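Q: I'm building a small set of examples for a reading group on sequence design. Run inverse folding on the following structure and report the sequence directly after it, with nothing in between.
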């Protein structure tokens, strides 16, 4: 049974969030992103990934 939100408001999340529960991206998407970073050879200030962030 789900507890109601504080003061009877709407729930902020569909499922309970647990402290320490990992929220990781899809591994393939992450690896593609890391590959783009290494392929660009621009890992520091004002690079494309900093601007995207």
């Amino acid at each position: 049974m789900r507890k109601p939100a504080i003061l009877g408001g709407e729930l902020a999340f569909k499922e309970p969030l647990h402290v320490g529960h990992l929220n990781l991206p899809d591994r393939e998407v992450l690896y593609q992103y890391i590959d783009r970073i290494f392929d660009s050879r621009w890992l520091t200030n004002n690079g494309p990934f900093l601007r995207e962030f």
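The mean pLDDT is 79.
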